[in-house]
């Protein structure tokens, strides 16, 4: 049985400090996940993304976020319960003044950090009264930042999904995007839309850095998938630069900022690019005559920087459990 000693107060204080710092870093500093939640988020997010059930994979980011909140809640309860185990007289029954047992102290810590204040048990002495106030303030603070963070994350997720829908409406494949460049009127319209998407991707990149949990999302609908849409835009930039005649390709003032935005949003994934440039070149074969009949398209795709860009997009697709068939599929 646990013996009451100030040692447990020190341990509990360290636990509370660690989770509070982790919560602040994750939710307020906008610099990524904290040291405790980072690995939990990655494990839960990747696990849910790989599930076959659409509900689980589609809401992988939400499950990873909920797992983080559960972790903070458990550590918060455990930490304050340990703090109140520093003395046998720290918590007493309100009626008969008998010292509370271990389970009762856990109960006391729970209703204190949730600010319920049922009154069955009370802190005994100035020190423990002050710590009770600190526990209530700590619990209120954690709950507040969790609510605020959840709103920000859900907003960022919806923005990602809207970007995926917007890209999907431009065409089924990257080549469909390039066809707009062949007509002067549609060329201007698509250029304006690509510039708008560039700004939205740049903003999405900033939010990904601030809220890493939004990376763990999977949209089953290929045409509205953010991951496929980003790869589609990157591929369109690549094809316009490498395979289309200069008179028909999109100007660099459009493609360069767009590719930079794609580069930022794809980040450094953990995949090594499972799909090669040769593989996607095979998918491109039906479109080669529409892009450039003057030079060998396959050879162009094998050479840097085209191959390096393709490998980056391949890694991005593989990380999201997608491949080039999804980018060039007609469904």
Automatic annotation (TrEMBL):
Domain of life from the UniProt record: Bacteria
* Organism per entry: Thalassoglobus polymorphus
Q: Where is the Potassium channel domain?
A: 72-155
Mind telling me which Pfam families this protein's record contains?
Ion_trans_2
Record bears the keyword Cytoplasm: no
| Keyword line | Membrane, Transmembrane, Transmembrane helix
- Residues crossing the lipid bilayer are 6-39, 60-83, 103-123, 130-151
Q: What is this protein called?
A: Ion channel
Key word Transmembrane present: yes
């Amino acid at each position: 049985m646990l013996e009451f000693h100030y040692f447990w107060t020190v341990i509990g204080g360290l636990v509370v400090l660690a989770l509070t710092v982790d919560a602040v870093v994750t939710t307020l500093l906008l610099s990524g996940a904290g040291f405790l939640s980072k690995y939990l988020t990655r494990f839960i997010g990747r696990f849910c993304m790989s599930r076959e059930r659409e509900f689980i994979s589609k809401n992988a980011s939400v499950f990873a976020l909920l797992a983080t909140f559960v972790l903070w809640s458990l550590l918060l309860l455990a930490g304050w319960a340990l703090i109140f185990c520093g003395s046998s007289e720290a918590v007493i029954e309100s009626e008969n003044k008998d010292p509370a047992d271990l389970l009762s102290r856990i109960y006391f810590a729970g209703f204190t950090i949730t600010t319920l204040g049922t009154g069955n048990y009370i802190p005994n002495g100035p020190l423990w009264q002050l710590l009770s106030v600190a526990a209530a303030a700590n619990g209120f603070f954690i709950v507040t930042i969790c609510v605020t963070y959840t709103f920000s994350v859900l907003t960022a997720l919806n923005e990602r999904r809207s970007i995926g829908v917007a890209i999907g409406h431009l065409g089924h494949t990257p080549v469909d995007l390039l066809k707009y460049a062949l007509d002067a009127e549609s060329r201007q319209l698509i250029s304006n839309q690509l510039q708008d998407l560039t700004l939205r991707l740049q903003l999405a990149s900033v939010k990904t850095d601030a809220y890493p949990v939004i990376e763990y999302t999977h949209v089953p609908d290929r045409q509205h998938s953010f991951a496929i849409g980003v790869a589609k835009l990157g591929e369109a930039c690549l094809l316009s630069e490498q395979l289309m005649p200069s008179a028909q390709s999109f100007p660099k003032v459009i493609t360069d900022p767009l590719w930079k935005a794609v580069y930022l949003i794809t980040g450094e994934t953990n995949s090594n690019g499972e799909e090669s440039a040769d593989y996607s070149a095979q998918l491109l074969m039906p479109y080669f005559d529409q892009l450039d009949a003057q030079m060998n398209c396959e050879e162009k795709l094998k050479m840097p920087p085209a191959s390096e860009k393709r490998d980056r997009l391949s890694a991005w697709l593989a990380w999201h459990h997608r491949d080039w068939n999804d980018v060039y599929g007609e469904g």
